[in-house]
Amino acid sequence: VGDAEGKPLAGAALARRPGPGEPRARLRTHLLGQRGLQLKSGELQALLEGVEAGDLHRAPVYVGGVPFVVTDVRDGAFAARGLVQAGSWEQGLGLAVVHDAGLVLCGVHRGPGEARVVASLRAALPGFQSLARAGA
Question: Which pTM value belongs to this model?
Fold first, then answer.
């Protein structure tokens, strides 16, 4: 999985979607893995709830303390740009979130190219289904 120029993502996280009526206290156990990110428990909860409700675009999304604003909403995917000050290390970050009935996969990338990152994550998502079953 890579960014618009084929470079590796700056970070990625995979989470299992909560089941109907599943208690909020268990949401932090849904994180199946992450690399290059420091996704906090509250951030994961907000991300999963936003995906579940389909309203991730209504407020900034935080990943590793970095705020993102959703700029594109598609069936099963959200794309966002980082809201940071010029000159900070987070400048130019993008976030792509794809989901299906069982999983949420998010990737942080540098520079433009959300459409390519979303497509790349969508293509990778089916390969993670065995992880979701093992984590259930």
Answer: 0.85
